[in-house]
Write a structure and sequence with these properties.
It catalyses: L-citrulline + L-aspartate + ATP = 2-(N(omega)-L-arginino)succinate + AMP + diphosphate + H(+). With 401 residues, this protein is of the alpha/beta class. It is 42% helix and 20% strand. The chain has a five-stranded parallel beta sheet, with helices on both faces. It has a five-stranded antiparallel beta sheet with strand order 10-9-8-13-14. The longest helix has 22 residues.
Length: 401
C-alpha cells in the first residue's frame, strides 16, 4: 500500500507515533521515515525520544527547539485576540498544532519528502488541525494518518510494535491522557469522562491546591507594548520567560484551572480539564488594558471578532484567509494598547486591582462626581430627547392603534 517514498512523521515518543514508523514502512511501503519532535516546553527529555525513534526504525530523528517561536508567533497573537474558545479554553494545546504542521512542511521541503504523517486518531480535533494546516501550507504534500486507518486496539498496537522491536510501555497507574507544552496542560479520560466526577488533586501539576496556596496575596504587575506582554514587575523579559514566570507565580496561588464540557469539532462533547496559569492571566490583563485604550465601539465589535478567531484556531484554520483578515483587524486595534495592569493573586483568584496607560481614554474630569466635574449636565436633556425619539414615536403609534 505504498503511498510515499520518504515521509516526515510528527513524533512524540508515545506508542502510536512509535508504531507508525514500522507500520508506514512495512504496511504502506514507505522507504524512509524521518521523525520530527518539536520542543514546545513540554518538559520531556527529548534525547531519549530521539533515540527511541531511531531504535523504532527512523532513518533520521529531528528535534526542533521551537519554544520562542511558539510564544512569540502563536501565543502572543492569541493573547492580543483575547482568544478563549467557548469563552473558557485559552487554546493552549490547539495553538501548538499549526506550528508543528509548519515544522513538518518545512522539514519535508528540506529533506525532499513527498509526504508528512501524524499519529492522530479519527476521534479528536488534532487530526483536523494537522491535515488542514498542512494543506494550507503545501496543498501538494500528502498527509498520512496511519492510526486513523489501521483499526488496531491499544493492545494490538502494542503487540504490533513489539513484533518490530518496540518495547511495550511500562504499565501506567494513571488512567489519564495528558498533553503538555509551555502554555499549559490538558487532562482527559479515565474518571474525568464522567462529568459528575470531581477531579482529584493528583491530576494537577502546574497549579497548587487551594488549601496549600499562600495565606497572603501576591501582587503582579504586567506591562504590555502594543498588546504584547513585555515586563513582569518591571523586569523586561523575553517571550518564554514571561510565560514561565507567570506560570510559576499564578500557579502557586492556584490560578489557571479550567473544568469544562467542550464541543469538539468532530461533533462530540468532551469533558476537558486545563491548566494554563500564565495564558489565562495574560488574557485577563490584556482585556483590562484594552478597556482603557480602545473606544467603546471598537471594544464591542472586537468581542465578536475574538469569538470567531477562537473558533478558527480551535477548528484548525490558523492559516485560513479569514484568520489572516482577522489578524489585520486585531493588529490595528493594538497600536495603543500599551500600559501596565496590576493583579492580585490569592486563593485561586486573580483580581485586577489597577490599570494605567499613557493612551488611556479614561478622563477623570469627566468621570468624577466631585467639584472638578467638567461634564455638561445641561446637554443631557437634549441628548435624551433625540436618543429616545424613536421609542417615543413607537409608543404613541401603539397607543393610537
Amino acid at each position: 500500500m505504498g503511498r510515499a517514498k520518504k515521509v516526515v512523521l510528527a513524533y512524540s515518543g508515545g506508542v502510536d507515533t512509535s508504531v507508525c514508523i514500522p507500520y508506514l514502512k512495512h504496511e504502506w511501503g514507505v522507504e524512509e521515515v524521518i521523525t520530527l519532535a518539536a520542543d514546545l516546553g513540554q518538559g520531556d527529555e527529548l534525547a531519549p525520544i530521539q533515540q527511541k525513534a531511531l531504535d523504532s526504525g527512523a532513518s533520521e530523528s529531528l528535534v526542533v527547539d521551537a519554544q520562542d517561536t511558539f510564544i512569540q508567533n502563536y501565543a502572543f497573537p492569541s493573547i492580543q485576540a483575547n482568544a478563549l474558545y467557548e469563552n473558557r479554553y485559552p487554546l493552549s494545546t490547539a495553538l501548538a498544532r499549526p506550528l508543528i504542521a509548519k515544522l513538518l512542511v518545512d522539514a519535508a521541503a528540506e529533506y525532499g519528502a513527498d509526504a508528512v504523517a501524524h499519529g492522530c486518531t479519527g476521534k479528536g480535533n488534532d487530526q483536523v488541525r494537522f491535515d488542514v494546516a498542512i494543506a494550507a501550507l503545501n496543498p501538494d504534500l500528502k498527509v498520512l494518518a496511519p492510526a486513523r486507518e489501521w483499526g488496531m486496539s491499544r493492545e494490538e498496537t502494542i503487540a504490533y510494535g513489539e513484533k518490530y522491536g518496540i518495547s511495550a510501555p511500562v504499565k501506567k497507574s494513571s488512567p489519564y491522557s495528558i498533553d503538555r507544552n509551555l502554555l499549559g496542560r490538558s487532562i482527559e479520560a479515565g474518571p474525568l469522562e464522567d462529568p459528575w466526577t470531581e477531579p482529584l488533586e493528583e491530576i494537577y501539576a502546574m497549579t497548587t491546591a487551594i488549601d496549600d496556596t499562600p495565606n497572603s496575596p501576591e501582587y503582579i504587575e504586567i506591562g504590555f507594548e502594543e498588546g504584547i506582554p513585555t515586563t513582569v514587575n518591571g523586569d523586561v523579559l523575553d517571550p518564554v520567560k514571561v510565560i514561565t514566570r507567570l506560570n510559576r507565580r499564578a500557579g502557586l496561588h492556584g490560578v489557571g484551572r479550567v473544568d469544562m464540557i467542550e464541543n469538539r469539532l468532530v461533533g462530540i462533547k468532551s469533558r476537558e480539564i486545563y491548566e494554563a496559569p500564565a495564558l489565562l492571566l495574560l488574557i485577563q490583563a490584556h482585556r483590562e488594558l484594552e478597556s482603557l485604550a480602545l473606544t467603546a465601539d471598537v471594544s464591542q465589535y472586537k468581542r465578536g471578532i475574538e469569538e470567531t478567531y477562537s473558533r478558527l484556531v480551535y477548528n484548525g484554520l490558523w492559516y485560513s484567509p479569514l484568520k489572516q483578515a482577522l489578524d489585520a483587524f486585531i493588529l490595528q486595534t493594538q497600536a495603543r494598547v500599551t500600559g501596565t495592569v496590576r493583579i492580585k493573586l490569592f486563593k485561586g483568584t486573580a483580581s485586577v486591582v489597577g490599570r494605567k496607560s499613557d493612551y488611556s481614554l479614561y478622563t477623570p474630569d469627566l468621570a468624577t462626581y466631585g467639584a472638578e466635574d467638567q461634564f455638561d449636565h445641561k446637554a443631557a436633556e437634549g441628548f435624551i430627547y433625540i436618543w429616545g425619539l424613536p421609542t417615543r414615536v413607537w409608543s404613541q403609534r401603539l397607543r393610537e392603534s
